[in-house]
Every structure is written in structure tokens, then in C-alpha cells.
């Protein structure tokens, strides 16, 4: 898959503003993409988080609609920091990320775990 650069959405929900201001920087580097199959607003929802603790927002619906089935089929994706979106006249900040596919480790077979 070709990398996708996008602004995240939902950046004003919950603690997202505080989290983007704190963790939306190149020093952090990357963020996890977490599927939210039970999201009542969007069954394709993909949340952008840092260490499964700090929520930053969501991947836009049009992109999530394409990525969600791939994630559900076992493909892995990660979001890399591109830039923090700030305005000199607004307090609200946003985040632009680059989404790339990453290989997932294959499941460890029981015989491999026991050294057989």
C-alpha cells in the first residue's frame, strides 16, 4: 500500500487537544492505529493513540472505510508524525500523520514455544 498522508479528525474530543499539544511532535515519531469495531458513530472507526493510553483523534471516515477491512483481515498499519497543525488565531491544534503498512509478527506456533 502506498503511504497515506492525512489530518486526523475528532481532535477536539475528550483529552485529544491536550494530548496533541503534549505528544504531537517529531520526537514522538509514531502512533498506533486501533480499530474500534463497536464505535456507534462509525463501524470502520480507527483511532490514533499513543501507547494505548493517550487518544489523539481518528482517521477520517473515507480513509478508515478502506483501511478497516484490511486491518480486520490482519494487516498492520502505523501512523507517523508529519506536522502539528496550529493557527496563530485559534487555540485548537490538529495533527497530520502518514499512514504506512507494517508487517505483523506471525503467531508463534505452540511447538516453537516449547522449543520443538
Write up what this structure looks like:
- With 116 residues, the chain is α+β, with helices and mostly antiparallel strands.
- It has a single domain, classed as 2-Layer Sandwich (Alpha-Beta Plaits).
- Helix content is 21%, strand content 34%.
- The relative contact order is 0.25.
Largest sheet: 6 strands, antiparallel
Report helical residue fraction. 10-25%
Tally of domains: 1
Low-confidence stretches: none
Write a brief caption for the model.
The protein is an alpha+beta fold.
Outline the secondary-structure elements.
Layout: E1 4-7, H1 16-23, E2 30-35, E3 46-50, E4 54-58, H2 61-72, E5 76-85, E6 94-102, H3 110-113
Antiparallel strand pairs: 1-6, 2-3, 2-5, 3-4, 5-6
Amino acid at each position: 500500500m502506498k503511504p497515506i498522508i492525512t489530518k486526523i479528525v475528532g481532535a477536539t474530543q475528550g483529552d485529544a487537544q491536550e494530548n496533541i499539544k503534549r505528544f504531537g511532535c517529531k520526537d514522538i515519531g509514531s502512533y498506533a492505529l486501533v480499530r474500534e469495531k463497536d464505535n456507534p458513530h462509525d463501524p470502520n472507526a480507527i483511532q490514533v493513540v499513543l501507547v494505548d493510553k493517550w487518544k489523539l483523534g481518528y482517521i477520517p471516515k473515507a480513509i478508515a472505510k478502506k483501511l478497516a477491512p484490511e486491518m480486520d483481515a490482519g494487516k498492520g498499519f502505523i501512523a507517523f508524525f508529519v506536522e502539528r497543525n496550529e493557527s496563530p488565531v485559534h487555540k485548537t491544534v490538529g495533527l497530520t500523520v502518514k499512514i504506512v503498512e507494517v508487517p505483523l509478527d506471525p503467531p508463534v506456533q505452540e511447538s516453537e514455544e516449547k522449543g520443538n
